Amino acid sequence: MFRAYDKTGDVSYALGAFPTMELVGRRPDDVTAIALHSRFRMTKEVEDILAPVADKVYVSDRDVERIAKKGNTFVVGEFRKRYAPFVSETHVTLVRPSDAGNLGTIMRTMLGFGVRRLVVVGEAADVYDPRTVRASMGAVFALDVSLFSSWEDYAAAFDGQKYLFMLDPRSRPLGTVEAAEPCAFVFGNEGSGLPPGLATAGTPVIIPHSRDIDSLNLPQAVAIGLYEFTKTKFN
Description:
Blueprint: E1 11-15, H1 17-26, E2 31-36, H2 44-50, E3 57-59, H3 61-68, E4 75-80, E5 91-95, H4 100-112, E6 117-121, H5 130-135, E7 144-148, H6 151-157, E8 161-165, E9 172-173, E10 183-187, E11 203-206, H7 218-230
Parallel strand pairs: 2-3, 5-6, 5-10, 6-7, 8-10, 8-11, 9-11
Antiparallel strand pairs: 1-4, 2-4
Helix pairs in contact: 4-7
């Protein structure tokens, strides 16, 4: 029987068929159970995808509805949370991101641009909140995620080049900066951004835009930054 999601617990849930299929495809060993609603229409394609975990699949309207809440969700996958030890390779660093939807969107964006390591620093939105997992469309299962409780701990683990997206008199316009890998693309909280004191921790970068807006939102900034730094890889 599924229980309400607990941030401090060892398991979480993928809500919906697509994120659950991504879970099975990318992390089958972490699947603990998959509940199907009686209204879910099984196809041969889905049956083949679920084959590696067939012994963990069952039908339960009650379990699906207990976790999903919304009436248009007919598949829920329960899985073990997993965090990765930090490795010094190119990655995105988010400092205190606060919105689960934004966090999930950023994960999907990272996967789209081939950056597969995410670092989350400080008190932040839960990487494995079902809302985050759903917003990522299952991309979370393809990423290596590392957590650090403070900037100091993170900086001690990674002394490579950091590109800090922030407003600062020393910020260089995106497009004039060439990434020296391995590196970190660092973004701050949705409301407060990065602390001004971090400008000396690497190369501060700004995304030029018109004065008609105050700022770009966090997922937009990450998408534009990653596109600029990786665009030659996909030509």
